[in-house]
Amino acid sequence: MAMAAPTIVLAAIAGAHGIKGEVRLKLFTDALDNITRHARFDVGGRVIAVQTVRPDKPGMAIARLDGITDRNAAEALRGLQLAIPRAALPPLAEGEYYVADYIGRRVLDETGAPVGTVKSVENFGASEILDISRDAGGSVMVPFVADVVTETDDALVIDRVWLA
C-alpha cells in the first residue's frame, strides 16, 4: 500500500550494485542521514524499509532494501524513487526552505500577469536560481533572492526586468 500524498522524493534507484541485492541510489538530498533517519519509503507504490545505506561517489549511495536479495530483484527497481510523506520532514529554521515546496509554483510578473511555473531550483555557487518554464514557451532563469523574487501565498512575483 502506498503512503499518502503529498510525498517528497529523497532518492532514485540508479540500478543494482553487486549480486546480493544492493542498489545504487542517486540522492536528491545533501546529507546521507536524511535517508537513514527514515525507516520506510514509498518505492513504486509499495512500502520498503532501508536496511543499510552507505556513501558512494558524490551524490550517490549504496543501500540494502528489505526483501531485495539478488541482483535481478535490485535491477527491477531501477528508475523507481524513494519517497516519504511531506509531513515526515523536520521543521525548518527561519530562512530555510524545501526545494520541493517551490517546484510547480506559479510565477507572476509585478503587474500580476502570469509568467509560468517553477521547473527547478538550481545552485551554481553564488545563490539559488529559479528555472521557470514560461507559459508562452521556453524558460528563463532568475536569481532566487529577495531583491528579485517576492513570495505571496499562492505565487512568486518577479520583476519583468529579470524575465526579459
TrEMBL record:
Occurrences of domain Ribosome maturation factor RimM PRC barrel (ranges): 100-153
Q: What one GO molecular function would you report for this record?
A: ribosome binding
Supply one GO BP term: ribosomal small subunit biogenesis
**Which family does the record assign?**
Belongs to the RimM family.
Q: Which NCBIfam families match?
A: 16S_RimM (TIGR02273)
Give the record's GO CC terms: cytoplasm; ribosome
Description of its domains:
The PRC barrel domain binds ribosomal protein uS19.
Source organism, top-level taxon: Bacteria
> Which stretches make up the RimM N-terminal domain?
10-87
* This protein's name: Ribosome maturation factor RimM
- State its location(s): Cytoplasm
SUPFAM superfamilies annotated for this entry?
A: PRC-barrel domain, Translation proteins
Record keywords: Chaperone, Cytoplasm, Ribosome biogenesis, rRNA processing
